[in-house]
Amino acid sequence: MKRIELIVAYDGTEYAGWQMQPNKETIEGVLNRELSRLLNEEIKVIGASRTDAGVHAEGAVCVFDTESRIPGEKFSYALNQSLPEDIRIRKSMEVASDFHPRKVPCRKTYRYSIWHDEFQKPTNQRYTHLIYTKLDIDAMMKACEYFKGKHDFKSICSVHTDVDNTERTIYDIHIEVTPEKSVLQSSGLINNSVIKYRERGPQQIDIYVTGNGFLYNMVRIIAGTLIDVGQGRIKAEDIPSILDGKNRQLAGQTAPAKGLTLVGYIYKK
User: Fold this and answer.
1) CA 90 – CA 61 distance, rounded (Å)
2) Whole-angstrom Cα distance, residue 264 to residue 261?
3) For every residue of 189-228, which 3-state class applies, written as one string?
4) Which among 16, 77, 104, 221 is least surrounded, fewest beta carbons within 10 Å?
5) Rounded distance, CA 204 to CA 256, Å?
6) Are 135 and 230 in contact (CB under 8 A)?
7) Are 158 and 216 in contact, with CB atoms under 8 Å apart?
8) pLDDT given for residue 162 in this prediction
9) Could you report the per-residue pLDDT of 13-25, keeping only the tens digit for each?
10) What percent of the chain has pLDDT over 70?
11) Cβ atoms of residues 262 and 151 within 8 Å
12) pTM confidence score
């Protein structure tokens, strides 16, 4: 018996999240089914964490045990032959038999992506949340600083969160802005008034959050709160009092799932 680790990427649009659910297609369910078919033995993967319906991943982690003699690094090639195109194994490897992805200290990074323009870009619509109103990105960046460190995030998680301890540590949170160079601007086919408007877009705004763990909807609520800051409904300086209040109603909106991507994990050696 050996233990295999998989690094999994997926487009979560058509799935009811990671975790197995009755009568619903999930990432875990697809992996279990296709691995069991491939290896002719019952396989149940152990995921490092769960993602909600519609959430994507670039570097999700899971492990499984098998009697197969296939080399660890070859599972990715074999499994990708049968997986649907919206799920791919980016890497596979044999790991220690006692390695459990939820029981080893790690840093986990999520990205929340906003498309900032008058209208959604069709090629982005599955992976970004459209904001067409003006955003004060400097204020959003300022607000990020208040989330860093160890805090009780009871205000920044779903009221349905079922855990005893809502303290978590945010190691880093920052925003990256990528302007899109407009074909119309570069060709001179639009006038200066439109160019002036487009100084705030089109652009992609990516919010990166790295922590030791996250509560239910925590990253989506951080993103929603930062959006509210950018739109002037919440002040950056209000974030400490929101955290101290330990009341979900004090924080901002829960941003839509489709903008959220699990980037990956760094495990402590």
Assistant:
1) 10
2) 9
3) CCCHHHHHHHHHCCEEEEEEEEECCCCCCHHHHHHHHHHH
4) 77
5) 16
6) yes
7) yes
8) 87
9) 999 999 999 999 9
10) 92
11) no
12) 0.92
Q: Is 98 a catalytic residue?
A: no
Q: If we measure between CA atoms, which residue out of 46, 62, 147, 101 comes closest to residue 268?
A: 101
Instruction: Tell me the per-residue pLDDT of 124-177, one tens digit each, with 9 for 90 and over.
Output: 999 999 999 999 999 999 999 999 999 999 999 999 888 999 999 999 999 999
Which amino acid would we find at residue 100? H
Q: Which of 171, 165, 262, 156 is nearest to 211 (CA)?
A: 171
The larger pLDDT score, comparing residue 166 to residue 182, is at 166
User: What distance in Å separates the CA atoms of residue 171 and residue 245, rounded to the nearest whole number?
Assistant: 22
Tokens of 39: 């290896």
pLDDT band at 201; cut points 50, 70, 90: low
Question: Residue type for 172, please?
Answer: D
pLDDT digits (tens, 9 = 90+) for 111-128: 999 999 999 999 999 999
| Calpha distance 139→136 (Å, rounded) | 5
| 8 Å CB contact between 57 and 258 | no
Expressed in angstroms, the distance from the first to the final Cα of the chain is 24
| Integer-rounded Cα radius of gyration of the chain | 21
Residue 53 in contact with residue 17, Cβ under 8 Å? Answer: yes
Task: Look at residue 157 in the predicted model and tell me its pLDDT.
Answer: 95
Question: Strand locations in 80-187, DSSP E?
Answer: 87-95, 106-116, 129-131, 149-152, 167-179
Length of the chain: 269
Q: Is the pLDDT of residue 268 over 80?
A: no
Closest CA to 218 of 179, 142, 167: 167
Active-site residue, from 52, 65, 86, 206 = 52
CB–CB of 68/78 below 8 Å?
no
